[in-house]
Write a structure and sequence with these properties.
mainly alpha; 2 helices
């Protein structure tokens, strides 16, 4: 993962772009989990959603990291 990405001459931190992608993927995952009935066994849904977001963001950061 590089430090910054230029979009139209504006430098954005790459973690910001990964976070946006993680939000979109988390939204998709929560809809699938709700459709499957997973949230019926969860006590506090926002905490599960936050943990899912952090896991997806970490996975994206690992996948886009330097290949050394």
């Amino acid at each position: 993962m590089t430090g910054e990405i230029s979009i139209g001459g504006v430098f954005l931190p790459s973690i910001l772009l990964l976070a946006v992608a993680a939000v979109l993927l988390t939204g998709l995952a929560t809809r699938l989990l709700a459709f499957a009935g997973f949230y019926r066994v969860v006590t506090y849904r926002p905490l599960v959603d936050l943990a899912l977001f952090i896991l997806i963001l970490g996975l994206l950061a690992l996948l886009t990291g330097p290949s050394a």
